[in-house]
Amino acid sequence: MNVAEYIVNYLEDKNIDTVFGVVGGALLWICKALGESKSIKPIFTNHEQAAAMAADGWARISGKPGVVFAINGPGMTNTITGITQAWVDSSPVILITGNSNLKSVQYERKVGVRQYGTQDVRADKLMESITKKYFLLDDAAKVGKCLEDAYQIAVSGRPGPVCIEIPINIQGALVPDNILEKTDICEIEDTLMDTNSSVVKAVIEKLVSAKRPLILAGQGIRLSNSVDLFRSFVEKNQIPVVNSRMGIDSIETDSRYFVGRAGNHGSRSAHFALQTCDFLLILGSRMAPNTTGYDVGKFSQQSYKTLVDVDITELNKFGIKIDQKVHMDLYTFLEKADKELGEKNNVNQNIWIDWVTCCNNWEKKYPIMQSNYYSKDEISTYRVVEIISNMAGAEDLIISDTGSCCSIVAQVWQVKKNQRVFISGGLSAMGYWATAMGLALANKGEGQVICFVGDGSLQMNIHELATIRKYGLPIKLFVINNSGYQFVRMSQAAYGIEPPFGTNIDRGVPIPNTARIVEAYGLNYSCCNMTENLTDVISYVLRSCEAEICEIFVAKEQEVCPRLKSVACEDGTFISPDFANLYPFLDEDTLKNELDAALNCGDQI
User: Fold this and answer.
1) Can you give the pTM of this predicted structure?
2) How many whole angstroms separate alpha carbon 248 and alpha carbon 362?
3) Which of 66, 72, 33 is nearest to 52 (CA)?
4) Counting Cβ atoms within 10 Å, is residue 287 exposed (0-12), middle (13-18) or buried (19+)?
5) Residues 176/141, Cβ–Cβ less than 8 Å
6) CA nearest 159: which of 219, 201, 226?
7) Facing residues of 398 across strands?
8) Is the peptide bond before 367 cis (omega within 30 degrees of 0)?
9) What's the CA gap between 222 and 230, in Å, rounded?
10) How far apart are CA 599 and CA 323, in angstroms?
11) What is the pLDDT of residues 65-102, one digit of tens each?
12) C-alpha dist (Å) from residue 507 to 195, 482, 536
């Protein structure tokens, strides 16, 4: 077999039955081999960005690397946004990109010319900064080792994308017989992680001596397949939990120990808990500014902070002072921690009851949903998300594109038992909704895919409505129409930029008629612009067995609240607020009383 056939055979052996991409001359032999496969279904998107995003979504559900194929030059560069998304959000994706003849590629790189062959672009320089590893396959005899390395690197440790560039003449080259039966075992180069139980014991010693312990749960819990173990650990040991945005589905919202979600668009209860806990156990969160606020010195200053992460660079990066760093896989850590706590017979978690009650009281006293969101005059995005959340099934997959709908979903969504919630946490790319295609193709369960997207973000991958139609993907796409880029409008208004620039349909933003576009693509369209019809319209869409595009015309100036809101100074600098005091700001006495309420918890220790 040739290299292209070997690659397809390898993917088949790994039970990867779906790949994504756009064909072209530089992938001639790869495409031929894929076309001859009896078990791999190629999904042809209308843009390589969407192919990479869909591969990302497929990987997150299937648990295997998502595979995307693209030609050299513009095909490869078009994948960059999707590959970067997988890089920052830790999703295993393998990008296979073609190129010109190997001699041309080598000459171009040796001499340093800007370009030699048509469409030639330096994939190595572009991809090395957004992948775990870049490979140039320059010898047919190396194909087995290259593939196994790429696969294992993508899924090991902190997952992420890899890129394999294959010149056209190498794709068609015959693979030597001596490697057809045996592939070298990949040796992952990684910093050794902690395995000593004494490390975990030291963490537990700090935990059991705390009066007000709190867990900040990040995406690492999901990436390490630790969700069930984590939920059991929390319930058994009665420890309150705050989620980062990417860790949103690590715990059910109706758990007594769920406090809220942290960050620039979090909840007051979560921020109160973070600013009053005395021990903060951070599990698999990279502590991004979107979680901690941009003035990191104000984040949970009073607490002793322990960070557990599989990525050693996250333990050592600049920013928040971490008192105790544990380089360990979270599944291993939680198993050892649970055992360690179980052996401490003198520990009685009843000492934390007052603290848990205090957190519960904050959550009830300061709900996200406000009375004005139920106005009959105009539809609030908050109300839209609440209704859909209430109707969604316990097996559903929920995804939100960036913008105001993303922040509101992160605040409002009530996570049920087996729901998955996907948000573009690191890149926050408009057009992220295309990831829903991969979710739908990998979804083998009973749930459906529910996707939120703004009218502006929809346009960034509008061509993929054709892909949804072509492959019969039953995605429920709720288009939140707020006449442009409302989230940016809100930021501009907060800092005195009037009139808003480049954010409104009536000020030049070219957003077309969604209904006509959906009709042209042959998909079902419905809409709602009256509050009294909202529940019925949403119910109709969710009951459908087909793809549905539902446009909801919401309040144009819907603020996202509560939120961390900086104050702009005359010299152009910003003053960050107290992390505990989200906007709309509480008066000083109220804020002090709320924080003081926690300080009395655990006095019996």
Assistant:
1) 0.94
2) 19
3) 66
4) buried
5) yes
6) 219
7) 421, 450
8) no
9) 10
10) 21
11) 999 999 999 999 999 999 999 999 999 999 999 999 99
12) 59, 14, 33
